[in-house]
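Lab notebook page, bench 4
Experiment: in silico fold of construct C2
Operator: M.H.
Input chain length: 381 residues
Purpose: comparison with the prior construct
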Amino acid sequence: MPRSRPFLLAAVALAGVVALLAPAVPAAVRYAALPRVPDGPVNLLLAGVTPKYLEHAPVWPWPAAPEDYTGITDTILVAQLRPGGEVRLLSIPRDTWMNIPGWGYGKINGANPHGGPEMLVKAVQHLTGLPIDAHALLSLNALRDLTEAAGGVNLTVAKDLKYDDVAGKLHIDLKAGPQHLNGTQAEGFLRFRHDSEGDLGRVRRQQLFLAALSSRLKSPLNVWRLPAVVGAVDHNMKTDLTRPQVSAALGALLGGPKVTAVTLPGAFGPGGTWTPDPAGIRQLVQAQFSDPNDARTLSVALVNVDAPPGTARRVKARLESAGYASVSIVNESRHASAQTTLSGDPGAARKLAAELGYGTPDSAAGAAGMALTVRLGADAK
């Protein structure tokens, strides 16, 4: 073998490695984050944004406008990454009807165009009672590119899906049965909603797709695809993720991921909307998403027993600005109490007392269905 042959082979191998890793380089440079097992759950809001079209263009179908991430949100998920490698997904139907903070009553998918990701985050926190640590808005192309980077996904289509939208450049023609979907087919599978199930069926298909994608990426045979997957997501995403949060997210994913998914409790309402069930949501979040070490994830009841009028409202606003997502004012009989008391888990009560700067944990029964109850005394501020 000529002496130069080993060097040539090494150069070719190095070029191959560089080409393989290249798609992930922009994200690696931006965040420079090494995996770190997080101290507790990390809650990420993931939302797919629908495209806008140049409606005055001289061609038909209208071409898509440059992505500015201000459209309505087709897909809304809270992804909780837990230290052991488990990922818990909470799917929120896009047609969920609610009182959106800063806007008023409407579908939750309208929060982003009305007030940007900040309004969407507040709406999700208000709806679920979960504090959101960061958000990521994904363009429509993210789904297609992600699926292609993963080499497609294998799943079972429950029934024939057929729909054509010339203006939206959406053509769906999938047959029932086991399928290997490419990027375009996966987009149609997830965007289809023209049957009796409407948005709820779409949520189920989203969960099925994510489980199939997770299974594919966990396979050792597909490790080489991960840089392209990272690049596909990063190229189609607008996010406020910080370097420590990326590090914690990577650390949480090292052990799996093991994915479980649930849908926001509720029922169909007028006009195909989804009417949330507050009691069911509170029960689900406390059972599957709450962190006993983070009082912000627990439902908090405020009771004014001996504080000046308006104190409960002020404390509620203060706690919500600190990230407490499920704070309610509850009425009880007033009585003389010089000291604020906190009922519920002693550890969480102590942390909340530290947040307030006053109050003492006690063993009294709390308000029904609430994890912590704060009875505001004369010392409340």
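Observations: The two ends are 83 Å apart (CA to CA). The mean pLDDT is 83.
Next step: discuss at group meeting.
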